[in-house]
Design a protein that fits this description.
The chain is an alpha+beta fold. The chain contains 4 helices and 7 strands, in the order βααβββαβαββ. The protein starts with 5 loop residues before the first strand and ends with a strand.
């Protein structure tokens, strides 16, 4: 059954719920396959939610009263993005970068991730952006399948400097708008 998903900007009052969402996701990943390599209390964590709210770049997907997912959308790339062979020019005033797309385990395969990506695309178009970029840790098959299904093109592998966390390679994706 398709659930109504409402996406809005996160506010200070959401931070406790977002922290719980991140912790629930990390617990779920620990009990299953941890495709993204996320670690409870390290990433994503409360400080990421607080920073996202402060910078006005964090959005939440709500189903009823529950926060089902989050996404951070901003115009700042990871340092390693400079090594990508992108489809559009590197003018980040006209490029959105997606960070920390997270879906609560209770809402997996309910369309929350897809709706968050569609929301980012609509916001990017409204701002006159030419593309959306993101990265995903190599081997995160569920995320890569979602991005490809939503029209993102694989750009190539790159190091983003997270080798000390056991995450040496990331796959870059871009969707031209």
């Amino acid at each position: 059954m398709k659930q109504n998903i409402y996406i809005r900007k996160a506010v200070d009052a959401d931070i406790d719920c977002i922290e719980m969402l991140y912790e629930d996701i990390c617990d779920y990943l620990d009990a299953h396959i941890n495709y993204p390599g996320w670690k409870k209390g390290i990433y994503p964590a409360r400080c990421d939610a607080e920073k996202g709210v402060t910078e006005n770049v964090l959005y939440v997907a709500q189903v009823g009263e529950k926060i089902a997912g989050t996404i951070i959308i901003k115009h700042e790339p990871e340092e390693g993005y400079k090594n990508g062979k992108w489809l559009t020019e590197d003018d980040y005033r006209y490029i959105y970068v997606i960070y920390t797309l997270a879906v609560h385990p209770d809402f997996l395969k309910c369309g929350v991730g897809k709706e968050l990506l569609l929301f980012a695309e609509q916001a990017a178009r409204k701002e006159g952006c030419v593309s959306i970029r993101l990265d995903v840790v190599k081997g995160n098959t569920p995320a890569e399948q979602l991005y490809q299904k939503c029209g993102y093109q694989f750009i190539g592998p790159v190091s983003l400097g997270y080798e000390q966390y056991g995450l040496p390679w990331y796959h870059l994706y871009e969707k031209v708008l």
